Each structure stands twice: as C-alpha cells, then as structure tokens.
Amino acid sequence: MSPILVRPVREQLEHDRIIRLLQARSRRRYDAGINAGTEQVAPVGSGPSALYPDVVLLSMERGRRLEIVIEVETGESVNHLEALAQWVPYSKLKAAFHLYVPSGMVDVARRLCDDNRIAVSEIWSYHSVGEDVRFTLVHKSREAAPVRHAPAAPPRRRVPAPTAKRPTRGAKAASSRKSVKKAAGRGRAAPSASSRAASRTQKRK
Fold this sequence. Notes:
alpha/beta; 6-stranded mixed beta sheet
C-alpha cells in the first residue's frame, strides 16, 4: 500500500484483487509473496530500510534470490509523488522492476518514468472485462537483466532395443553352397555288396 496515498475503497479492493491474481500467475515459477492492503509480510531487505512492494518474486532455488518486484497502481496513484516515493527505490534494487497501471494511465506512467529517470524493466496495463482482468505488456526495457529460472531436468535418453543382426550377402551365399554340397553328398548312394563282389571276381580272372 502506498505510504502517501489513501485510495478509495473501490480502488483499494481492485488493487488487492490484481495483486492476488499476479501472485497466482507467478506461483509456478517463483516463490511469490504479496503485501496487500496494510499487510507487510513480504519485505525486501530488513530493518527500517526494508521495502514492501505489492508483489515480491523469489527464485525457487535454494538461495531464494530476489528476481522481480511488482508495483500495482490505480488511477489515483499514478502521480509524481508516488513515483518518487516508491518507483525510484524499487528501480534501484538488484532485481527487475515491473509496473502495472490502468490502461488509461500508460502514457502518464511512461512520462513519469522518463522525467524521473526511473529504470523500469516492464510496464503492463490492465483493464477489467466483466469479472476478468486483462493484462497487456506495453513497455519492455532493452537493458532489463534476464530473469533466471530453475534449470529444467534433462530429458531421458531412450535406449534402442537390441536388434538381431541380419546375415550379409556373402554369408548367405556360403550357407547356400554348403547346403547344396550336403544335398549332393546325400544323393550319392554307397556301392552295394553285390557290385563289390562282382568287381573282385573280374579281377581274379
């Protein structure tokens, strides 16, 4: 919540609703904390110098590194005092600074960032369509540091099933020749006993 602005009740409810939507959208990639309303449960830093952005996104890795801070503004809070009080400190953190403003206040937010030299990584606009809220990226800094995500698990390698080796042409020809020789050997009949006796009598004469 802004320390210098008291929002109308309707705007405050819409503000906190958008914060919770952003938290839900970010939970798959980050450890997302929020400071909705007057709550101060997700600080950046410690002690009296701690900051309380609307949404604080930390890395899912063991170190829980600060990745992104998000500030959500309503129509009343897009002004010069708010930019100096909150946008400037958030832009100096070692994390990406994302700013969400109503769709009708995009040009005002850009001008405030340019006039006050606020390094904002991304500016998003939002507007309600019935009960849904639509978000649109309208500005992205070229100098924005890339956000680190937890490394994905390497894909499993599929081991091919062992296949029987097919015989080569030479092996096929050799096996066919062997089978032919065996068949020829079997076809030759052994000489009978009578033929052997006849040959012996002829020799005696």
